Amino acid sequence: MSDVKLWDFHGGIHPPERKALSNRTPIQPAPLPARLILPLGQHIGTPAEPIVAVGERVLKGQPIAAASGRVSAPLHAPTSGTVGFIGLQPYPHVSGMLAPAIVIDSDGLDEWTTLEPCADYRSLEPALLLERIRLAGISGLGGAGFPTAMKLTARPQEKIHTLIINGAECEPYITADDRLMRERAAELVVGIEILAWLIQPEQVLIGIEDNKPEAIAAMRTAIGERPFSLRVLPTKYPSGGEKQLVEILTGQQVPSGGLPADIGILCQNVGTCVAIHDAVLLGRPLISRIVTLTGEALARPMNVEALLGTPVSELLAFAGLDETRMDRLIMGGPMMGLTLPSLDAPLIKTSNCLLAPTRSELPPPPAALPCIRCGACADVCPASLLPQQLHFFTLGQGHEQLKTHNLFDCIECGACAYVCPSNLPLVQYYRAAKAEIRELEQKQHKAEHSRRRFELRQERLRKAEEQKEAERQARAEKAARAKAVEAESASVPHQEVLPANPAAGFSDLQKRLKIEASMAQVALKKAEKQLAAHVTAELEAQVAELRAAAEAAQKALAAATAAAPAGADAALKKAKIELAMKRAELKKAEKADADETELTRLREALAGAERNLHAAEEASDKPAPQLVRTNKRPLDEKLRALKTELAFARADLRKLERDEAADPPALESARTRLAEAERRLAEHQSE
Ligand code: SF4
Ligand code: SF4
Question: InterPro entries of this UniProt entry (predicted)?
Answer without folding.
Answer: 4Fe4S_Fe-S-bd, 4Fe4S_Fe_S_CS, Ion_transpt_RnfC/RsxC, Nuo51_FMN-bd, Nuo51_FMN-bd_sf, RnfC_N, Soluble_ligand-bd
